[in-house]
Amino acid sequence: MTTRSNAHGGRRVGAGRKKGTVIKEPTAVMRIPQSQKPIIADFLATYRLNQSTDKQTNHLADQPTVFERPVVAPAKRSWPLFSSKVAAGFPSPADEHVEKRLDPNEFLIDDEEATFFVTIQGYSMIDSGLLPGDKAVVDRSKTATIGDIVLAVVDGEFTIKLLAKTKQGGPRLLPSNQSGEYQPIEIKDGMQFEIWGVVTGSFRRFK
Question: Where would I find the beta strands (DSSP E) of the chain?
């Protein structure tokens, strides 16, 4: 008797879910907007590199650790923007002092799909007005130029610094703190370096 195999049924060699993953921890399936796929892919690539980085050789400080996305298509809301200037106190609520109405989303965000927020850690950028706990607005659609504040990845670690260049024309990251506690980061051959986005603004709460 000749036994024939079913070409369309049964378990095939190599079929099914592959064991193991490049992310060294349990994973879960989730749906994300198609437009956000490149941002998530970049973040995971950096995360995998960070997993293999020896923490004892970490030469960066103040790396932001909280990444947040703005709400997609936020509701349009605006508040009065007063034209009168006051040293302290609250301007007159009289209608003639209202210059226009301001939507904070439109003021802070130029490209909604390319923008995200990171929480500032440490004091290396205080002279640029970035304090611990502040939310920095990062726009990935903008091209960084010398003098911009950027979110960069150096050897698998995120850092927010001023973009500068060496005498040889190579990239250099500078702190914005006159205390001398924080040193410039020199980007040398063999280092992994990428500018993730340009910091276009920030916001904070006092209470």
Answer: 67-68, 79-82, 98-102, 115-119, 135-139, 149-154, 157-165, 171-174, 185-186, 193-203
